[in-house]
Write a structure and sequence with these properties.
There is one protein chain. By secondary structure, this protein is an alpha+beta fold. The protein has helices at 15-26, 30-68, 93-102, 139-144, 166-172, 207-210, 218-227, 250-261, 271-274, 276-314, 316-324, 329-365, 370-373, 394-411, 413-420, 424-429, and strands spanning 73-77, 107-120, 125-133, 148-151, 161-165, 179-185, 191-202, 213-217, 239-244, 266-270, 367-368, 378-379, 382-383, 387-388. Helix 10 runs parallel beside helix 15 (413-420).
């Protein structure tokens, strides 16, 4: 009689059968499984809310920084960011804007002139940043005009009207109607001055802006460029601020602009390149959120290891019997691993049910952060909206799901290996 090899007589379990057995094994101790799932769902829900509020606050700061700053993309003289100077400007602003408009980008292009000046009144003199723009239609004007606490906004074409922050007004002891002398140095060493009259005073809640900005019509600011040798007919500017209709097109729009305008004299930069300090702050804050997520993962891993390992230890005799009947180590390992897989799927499902529901509510209703951190929500030259709503991108949802699911699967490896190492003789003696 022919004797078959031992491995040929080993029992085989179809995948469907192993999945069914794993499902039944999970619910042998319903209370333990439910408690584990609930703890994972609560932890996952907290992680979703934490990341959602983090992304919501970051996006709020970014949106406001872009509106108060230089747009999603900035076209300016090469080297200006590293070494700003009044003599660095784009001499033919009219031709350059025509080239930008010819690209047909879904965006608004705002010409601007940024200068370093000395603002003086009979009471005091302070360094300031003069920002010339096209009246009330500029995006920055739309943000700051509702923040006026005195006076009105300057009209388009007003060659004398200026708007200053309340911090600047206190330093200069200037009220609406006061005269302010704006003085700027020339590249050759001389100086030039223009007279401005305060039309309005704003309070943006951002001290860096309130203490430093002097806003004026682009015509007034251009007089300083003419003093530097610019041709008035060519409408010289220091930069163009490009505000995209859809921020998701930032990468493609930046690439198009770079290809069209980049040269030895001109460069196109996106908002991340223009505001590296803000990017660094957001990165560090994001890292803090992921530390919280790491703590959640530790809780998830210990919860699942506890549930699956206890289940394995309680069934040592059963595993020994299965091994004695011919079930291979590999199938025993897969059986326990299937339990972890099913537990992970349930954990992610319940986690999104709880966390996703909370996210949907706070995405609609938001939370008033001023009750937590006070009225001043300004930081890094920008500010958060008073009411923050949770925001989760599709990439973030996939990222959170994948992290929790992989952590769940990984936590089932040790119990599965322990079950696979069971020897029939020792197991049946327990």
């Amino acid at each position: 009689m022919k004797i078959e090899p031992t491995h040929a007589r080993r029992a085989q379990l179809p995948v469907g059968t192993m999945a069914m057995l794993a499902w039944r094994n999970l619910w042998r101790h319903r209370r333990r499984t439910v408690v584990t799932l609930f703890s994972i769902a609560v932890g996952f829900g907290l992680a979703v809310l934490m990341i959602g509020f983090g992304d919501g606050s970051h996006n709020s700061m970014i949106r406001n920084a872009i509106k108060l700053g230089e747009g999603h993309i900035t076209v300016q003289p090469r080297g200006y960011l590293e070494s700003p100077a009044n003599h660095r400007y784009l001499p033919d602003g009219r031709a350059l804007q025509a080239r930008i408009n010819a690209l047909g980008l879904p965006a608004r292009v705002e010409p601007r002139i940024s200068l370093q000046v000395l603002a003086s009144t009979p009471a005091n003199s302070v360094g300031a940043g003069l920002e010339g723009m096209l009246g009330a239609d500029d995006e920055r004007a739309r943000m700051l005009r509702p923040q006026l606490i005195a006076g009105t906004w300057f009209e388009a074409g007003d060659r004398r009207g200026i708007v200053i922050g309340d911090g600047m007004a206190r330093k200069l002891k200037a009220k609406v109607g006061a005269k302010v002398v704006l003085m700027a140095g020339l590249q050759g060493g001389d100086s030039q001055a223009q007279l401005g009259r305060v039309r309005g005073i704003f309070d943006s809640k951002v001290d860096e802006l309130d203490d430093f900005l002097v806003l004026a019509d682009i015509g007034l600011a251009r007089l300083f460029l003419v003093g530097e040798g610019a041709d008035p007919a060519r409408e010289s500017v220091t930069r163009f601020a490009v505000f995209l209709d859809d921020p998701d097109t930032l990468a493609t729009s930046t690439a198009q602009l770079k290809q069209a305008v980049d040269s030895d004299q001109v460069v196109a930069l996106d908002w991340r390149e223009m505001m590296p300090q803000l990017v660094q702050f957001l990165f560090l804050d994001d890292a803090g959120n992921y530390v919280f997520l790491l703590l959640i993962l530790v809780m998830v891993v210990f919860g699942i290891v506890n549930t699956v390992l206890m289940s394995v230890l309680e069934r040592t005799r059963e595993f020994g019997l299965l091994r004695a009947l011919g079930l291979g180590r590999r199938h025993l390992l897969l059986l326990v691993f299937f339990e972890s897989l099913l537990l992970g799927l349930l954990a992610v499902a319940f986690g999104w049910l709880l966390g996703g529901g909370a996210h949907a509510w706070f995405a609609y209703a938001g939370i008033d952060v001023t009750a937590l951190i006070g009225e001043n929500t300004a930081m890094m030259g920008t500010f958060m909206d008073p009411v923050i709503r949770t925001e989760l991108s599709g990439e973030r949802i996939w990222q959170l799901t994948w992290i929790i699911f992989v952590a769940t699967l990984g936590s089932g490896i040790y119990p599965a290996i322990k079950a696979a190492r069971v020897t029939p003789v020792q197991a049946l003696r327990t």
